[in-house]
Automatic annotation (TrEMBL):
This is Calponin-homology (CH) domain-containing protein. It comes from the Eukaryota. PROSITE patterns: CH. Keywords: Repeat. Residues 1-83 form the Calponin-homology (CH) domain. SUPFAM superfamilies: Calponin-homology domain, CH-domain, Spectrin repeat.
Length: 449
């Protein structure tokens, strides 16, 4: 029976809760309080839904059979009340939905403008960096730039690529929403169209194209430069250590104070040095070749390299000239010293017999003699005359001996050599030996008379 469904009041409360849950809490209601349920429903309906109280709660609760028509009329009042409310709510909902859609569209437009401006500004700042194909010409600086580029590829570009894709998606979505809402199509501000963004992105990728390859080539060039610079430094250090003191040695006049044997030893030593010099020719050529390659590759400290290379080359040319001059000087000195040595040897050969003759003559002239007959005196006088006859030959021999010493001394002076002692003889020429002999001859002649 229809009216029995509303007897406990829960049905009226359920209708109100279904359409206006804000007016009562249906979960707190029970069947055990039908009168309370009815009064609650009737009071809320009258106060909030403008439905007049057509029924009495006690009458419905206590009567065995209520008037079904009255109940149905009252229930229909709920229908009309909720029907009117629903239409208003629907209209309001539609208006709110339209306003919400418009607001969302406006937000999407503003967000598009913001993202487009941000992306284009990032491209504007990044593109010149990618187009700049210059480094500080140092290995450390180029490695740092390569690290920055790889960070750009890993960390900076991917979010911007996602931002570009989002802009394209949001733009298409916004145009679809506007078309469905019968709104005019969205036109971004000048320079922020999708076509502008695509063109800017293509320009970025064009600048990016080949950037890493160029950086890697530059890095390999600088690594090669660093290797060559260290190699140049090492070879220069070795060469300079080897050449230290060589110029002083080659310009030395030590050979002017040497004997023939020492001079020959110096000549052999010089031949060994010439062989060593020829062996170092290859190193000097390598130094020059490395310096040339450093010039071609654009080494940043090329001025210092060129200066050092030029110094080494100049020194090398000087060493070559001095080596040749010393070889000529040693050869000439050896020839001259051989001449002096031959004079010394000839002096030794002549001086020893002459000194022996001189010593013997002195002994004979000062020697005491005992005679007993006139014939003995005559014999001594004859022998004395024969001795005096040999004085001319002895004088000539003495002059030859003195001339040998004089020639040796003059040869040394003319060639700038130091006059050394005779290695073959310790005999010194006596300038007054002839006068001494003559004096002794005079004394002996007096005695013989």
């Amino acid at each position: 029976i229809f009216y029995l469904s509303f007897k406990d009041g829960l049905a009226f409360c359920a209708l109100i809760h279904r359409h206006r849950p804000d007016l009562l809490d249906y979960s707190k209601l029970t069947k055990d309080d039908p009168l309370g349920n009815l009064n609650l429903a009737f009071d809320i309906a009258e106060k909030h839904l403008d439905i007049p109280k057509m029924l009495d709660a006690e009458e419905i609760n206590n009567s065995i059979k209520a008037d079904e028509k009255v109940v149905m009329t009252y229930v229909s009042s709920y229908y009309h009340a909720f029907s009117t409310t629903r239409k208003a709510e629907q209209a309001a909902s539609r208006i709110c939905k339209v306003l919400s859609v418009n607001q969302e569209n406006e937000q999407m437009m503003a967000e598009y403008e913001r993202l487009a401006s941000d992306l284009l500004e990032w491209i504007r700042k990044t593109k010149p960096w990618l187009e700049n194909r210059a480094t500080d010409n140092t290995l450390h600086g180029t490695q740092a730039k390569l690290g920055e580029f790889r960070d750009y590829c890993r960390s900076q570009k991917p979010p911007r690529l996602s931002q570009k894709a989002k802009l394209e998606t949001d733009f298409n979505t916004l145009q679809t929403r506007l078309r469905l809402s019968n709104r005019p199509a969205f036109t971004p501000t000048e320079g922020k169209l999708i076509a502008n963004i695509v063109d800017a992105w293509k320009g970025l990728e064009l600048a990016e194209k080949g950037f890493e390859d160029w950086l890697l080539r530059e890095l390999r060039r600088l690594e090669r430069l660093d290797h060559l610079a260290k190699k140049f430094q090492h070879k220069c250090n070795i060469h300079e250590e080897w050449s230290y003191g060589k110029i002083d040695l080659l310009t030395s006049s030590d050979f002017k104070r040497c004997s023939l044997n020492d001079l020959r030893a110096l000549s052999r030593k010089h031949l060994a040095f010439e062989s060593d010099l020829a062996a170092h020719q290859d190193r000097v050529e390598q130094i020059a070749a490395i310096a040339q390659e450093l010039n071609v590759l654009g080494y940043d400290q090329i001025a210092m390299v060129n200066q050092r290379c030029q110094q080494i080359c100049n020194e090398w040319d000087q060493l070559g000239d001095l080596t040749h001059k010393r070889r000529v000087a040693l050869t000439d000195a050896e020839r001259i010293v051989e001449r002096i040595d031959s004079l010394f040897l000839e002096y030794a050969k002549k001086a020893s017999p002459y000194v022996n003759w001189l010593d013997g003559a002195r002994e004979d002239l000062v020697d005491m003699f005992f005679i007993h007959t006139l014939d003995e005196i005559r014999g001594l006088i004859e022998a004395h005359h024969q001795f005096k006859a040999t004085l001319g030959e002895a004088g000539a021999e003495y002059k030859n001996i003195i001339r040998l010493v004089s020639d040796a001394r003059q040869t040394c002076q003319e060639n700038g050599l130091e006059f050394i002692s005779n290695p073959y003889s310790n005999i010194q020429p006596e300038v007054n030996s002839k006068a001494t002999i003559l004096f002794f001859i005079f004394l002996k002649s007096q005695k013989l008379r």
